[in-house]
Amino acid sequence: SHPNKQLWKSDDFGQTWIMIQEHVKSFYWGVDPYDKLNTVYVERHEPTSFSTILRSTDFFQTRESQEIILEEVDDFQLKEKYMFATKTVHLLGRQEKSSVQLWVSFNRRPMRAAEFMTKHPITEYYIAD
User: Fold this and answer.
1) What is the value of pTM for the model shown?
2) Which of 42, 58, 83, 113 could covalently link to 65 via disulfide, CB atoms 3.0 to 4.6 Å apart?
3) Phi, psi torsion values for 3, nearest 5 degrees
């Protein structure tokens, strides 16, 4: 376990390796038919203590193939046609209270915050398989 949490790849069955990302909290391979071949999703831990979700279709070799999916994320999961992320938000009018938002993407559309009608702060979500 490297202190910089690096993600590496090899094109020649382990003879040589290239680093494709650092500060990786988690990663997921893209899923056919929702993603292009060679798509990888990376949850990258930032100095702010939050994560950024990135997608690349060429293992982060060119900037043109990279896309930021969502920023200031607590956690991320990719499950088939769904992507889930959580973000901590501070509630208006309540300095000490925060709530966890669930963000969802279906069929790789842009991430959207799910809405739950409750007056109480939400502390966590569980995504069942």
Assistant:
1) 0.88
2) 58
3) -60, -25
